[in-house]
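Comment thread on ticket #2218

A.B. wrote:
> Attaching the input chain for the structure job we discussed in standup.
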Amino acid sequence: MYLESPQNPRVKAWAALKTKKGRMAHGSFLVEGMRLVEELLRSSLQVDALLWDVGSDELPEQITDAALERGVPMFELSPGAFSTVSDTMTPQGVAAIAKIPDNAGLDKAQLASHTLLLDGVQDPGNVGTIIRSADAFAVGEVCCGTGTADPFSPKVVRATMGGLFRVPVLSCGSKDYVDAWRNKWPDGQVLVTAAGADLVCYEVDFQKPSLLAIGSEAFGVSRDIVDAGTHQVKIPMAGMAESLNAAIAGAVLLYEMFRQRQ
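C.D. wrote:
> Ran it. Output below, let me know if you need it in another format.
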């Protein structure tokens, strides 16, 4: 189907997915770029539409074949209509509309034995990069808690590099998630990152059920989660830097959790 006008109702609905309000209203999110769309089509997520800018290069066969195999409706958009939907400065001419998974709330949380809570991490790039690391290091679930960027926003989706399609990710209140996790794992440990902690990451026994909480660079983990934690943990550093970027710190800690479980 060819859609020319940016005012087309379908185009306007897809463009609304760039906002959290629009995503909540439609229960869907936007995925852009050749690689990400290809990753999405290989995933188990529901894909509602494949969009192609007729003014761009032809779609690669692997994308069209995957869409046809899954029965995904394909829409050709005029350059003007596609730019209305797109969230990138230099669009690649392909996008997809995916359904937000029904396990994206606390009521469907898996509460995995080794899980990650992002508490107040507002930068979309950091959130996406941490989800990408969670995918790389076999984290069972990621909770984007209180004050954390929406994991289904276009910038976060791009930064995950496909990790969002493979790791269960949900959004809910940080304390609600910790309480639910501790109810399931009463002997588990809630590890709160803190630069002034006495316990260094390689001293933690990550063989135990573990919830790792990472906070914002500016304010750290919130008081409620600090109080709910069983241990505070830090990454030892030899240089003059006071702290690490949240995404870098997350990757280091998630690797240590992964390494000990091998």
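A.B. wrote:
> Thanks. Noting for the ticket: The CA atoms of residues 131 and 164 lie 7 Å apart.
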